[in-house]
Design goal:
The complex is a heterodimer of chains A (179) and B (388). Chain A has 179 residues and is an all-alpha fold. Chain A has 9 helices and no strands. In chain A, helix 3 packs across helix 4 and helix 8 packs across helix 9. The longest helix of chain A has 20 residues. Chain B is of the alpha+beta class. Chain B has one domain. Chain B has a 15-stranded antiparallel beta sheet. In chain B, strand 5 and strand 6 form a beta hairpin. The longest helix of chain B is centred in the N-terminal third of the chain and has 25 residues. The N and C termini of chain B lie far apart (101 Å). Classes of the chains: A mainly alpha (179), B alpha+beta (388). At the A-B interface, helix 2, helix 3, helix 6 and helix 9 of A face helix 2 and helix 3 of B.
Chain lengths: 179, 388
Amino acid sequence: MEELKQYQIALEQFKNGDFTHFNEFYEQVKKPVFYNILSLTRDEFLAEDILMDTFVKFLQNINKMDSSKSILGFLIVTSRNLTLDYFKKHNRVEKIDESQTQMFIHNDTRSLMKINFLLEKIRSLLNDEEYDIFCLHTLSDLTFNEISNIKNKKLGTVLWQYNNAIKKVRKEINYEEYQ
Amino acid sequence: MKNINEEMISDKEIVELIDKQKNYYIKLSSDEILNKYYLEQQNIDKILVKKARFNVWKFILPSFACCFLAFGITFGVLYSMDQSGTSSGGNIVNVVEKNEKYKQIISDELLTFTNFNNNDLTQTNNIKNIYNRQSIKEKFDDEQTLTYEQFNEVVDEYEKLENGVYNIFNINNYQIAVEQGNYEFLNEKFDFKMNVFNDDINIEYFYNQDEVIDIDDDEKEEEIVLNGYYSFTNLDNTKTIYKARFSNKTETEEDEVENEIEAVFYDYNNDETKPVYEIKKEQETENLDVEVAYSYSIYNSIEDYKRERVYYSVEYEVENVNNEKELEIKVTNLEKEIEFKNIRQIDETHFSFEFEYESEKVESSATAYIEYINEKRIYTCNNLTIEK
């Protein structure tokens, strides 16, 4: 609740052209947005590019935003739309190729490599909706209420799909393997 | 024996596992975002200033003279681009006289467009009414059963195009000049003025232009957008004014050049209830071969234009066959489809064309002839004669 208030105050400041606290705001929300993009792109560089575009678009639309609505929700939806636009434009199929994997290793971003492998595995287990909801909750830290708003689904449906996802993941993922 | 649940990862562990992996260091900083935002904002502000000046999305188009201008502008630009890579600022460029290659192209296109609105400028305002006539309902099987009423409807459709068709075959004498300067028209400032003229026609176009050039390794893409006012001087010296927007995209790849030209005319007072006219031309040039396709569409309102709800459209092609021009025109509106094929000028006063007519209940094809006698046109088909 306190966080929500802070976002709302920040939003009003941004609307007035005061970006003094933009850095704090960004630091608070960048991770969920970034991981949301990463869950779709599984490419850190592309994810950062889209992260940039997401926040620029957020700032450009700041005056149209309703302070009572979820700012994180807006960022998540925007980032997903921009990612999908990117895919459409580049006719890209979601996958990680070997060169990317090598690149991760050379860059010593092993955690990213692990999460990508983990996401790849989870992606193969779940259907699109389940994967979406799973990532929004676990990666982007959205509450089920927020997810139900973003996806325009009933809370019960979101919970049911998340539980289905968790059941499938539990059966197939070995905790030790990804530690 | 271990319980199966003990082997499985728990819900909590799944979330924990994911959380543990979420330690990637995001390099993008808030300063970088703000810098990009400021930069884009500056660009948007520039565009908004231009939009406020031209209101480019409120397109509505005019009559015959507009079409004339459309080609004038388009080819003026093409020519200028061809010569210097930019607009021809500073000098008067007589495109037609300077470059024979363009003479034919310009005259063909100028005059092909000339007539989808007829000679009478006031007719533009009646567009909505023109096409509200009841379509032919009776069925006939072949040209022998073509009735007078049915042929009359075909002739009526042809009449809407007649002036332009005639001009394509008979008028070549006009000039195009492009000048750069500080022009003011309707309290707006413009960098360029184009003049399309001959003894009977005087069209001015005041405009500003934007140009974007994108060069890849083996492909060059250029886009020029012109925004401004079109002004046509009528016989009684009054002016007919429209806002007009032209965009010309050129893609060059080795020996192949593709041009896409779009012209949209709209009411200069931005009346959204007036029709929008859109002219498109695609030209593909490979070595010495040139293929050109045109389309001309009318929308009843700005809203229809935005939603791409075409009310009336014409597609046409001009070909030179054995040094003779041959024209094909396809007309489509909500009720029917008519194709005029092999439109040819037989001699000074005679034309022929084949038509294929298709409406809700009628399909027919036949050949018709036109004879020009004084100010009249006599249409004949089989034993039917209609005078206009």
